[in-house]
Fold:
Amino acid sequence: MIESVVLWLFLAIILVIVAFTLRKEREEVPRKEILRAVQTTTAGGGGIGLLEKSFLWAFSWMDTRFRIQDYWAMSRDAYYSMHRQMPLTHAAKYKLRIIWYWYPLYCLGGISFLAFIILVITGTILGIYYVPGGMGDPTPAYASMEFIMTQLPFGYIIRSIHHWTTHFMVAAVFLHMCRVYFTGAYRNPRELNWLIGVALMFFTIFFGYSGYLLPWDALAFGAATIGINMANATPLIGPWVATAMFGGSTLTYQAVTRMYFIHVFILPVLVTTLIIVHLFIVWVQGVAEPH
Ligand code: HEM
Structure:
């Protein structure tokens, strides 16, 4: 009883706030051109559909509050005012022969991006069922992978897509790097984007490695042993690297938790940020096509 009273009270308050806001808008807010246009069109007998009317009304409602039109105009002006034609590539500068047959290779960066999106989606689904525990026999990590593979509906398909898209992405990123190198697109003014690309290549491989350890099966254990030995063998910072990556200088159950954190938190944040900056620079500078 008391719950429904509270609920009705809450709804009444919301209704009063909405009504008050709308009344305020009618009285004070000057930016109502669209709304007026909607009313005029409807009154004139021309009549627009309910869908269009609702959309325009919602747009006008948002615009009076967030000035969408102004920001849209500002970003459009910024887009057109940017100096988007950058210096030519070495292919253009040195009048190299037209290499139009390389054009299909220009989609490799886009393919890498698409692979990353697929990995984020399938990885998120896997993350719902995966348990990052390395202790016990079988370990929770291994048991959860077994569950995903044998019992979860479509689990093995999601895992397979995640697995194969990883291979695909590593190959695409590597070939994209080759394309950039052989078309000389890494040169002035694109040096910074090349360096960001180098970081992306490294993180993509590290993504693959950290994911490889997560099932904590014999393969993962073997790869982790190699990894921790490599880390320990690093001069000066070896033990520190081993601790940061594997939770200690000897291989324990902690490696799974560390790799999980790296795989689902650190790397996604880093790679997403770098990809955004990478693509923003491509947008600003334009693609260095062979001319
Ligand atoms: C996650 C990995 C990566 C993604 C998603 C990505 C995405 C892209 C995209 C969509 C473009 C536009 C042109 C094209 O598609 O070819 C591009 C251009 C470029 N990328 Fe990447 N890239 C990645 C990794 C790399 C790597 C590893 C390098 C080099 C070490 C690199 C260096 C560059 C450079 C220099 C350009 C400008 C090329 C031009 O203007 O012709 N990228 N990238």
Remarks:
- Residues 106, 108-110, 112-113, 116, 173, 176-177, 180, 185-186, 190, 193-194, 197-198, 200-201, 204, 275, 278-279, 282, 287-288 surround protoporphyrin IX containing FE (CB under 6 Å).
- The chain has twelve helices and no strands.
- The two ends are 76 Å apart (CA to CA).
- The chain has a mean pLDDT of 86.
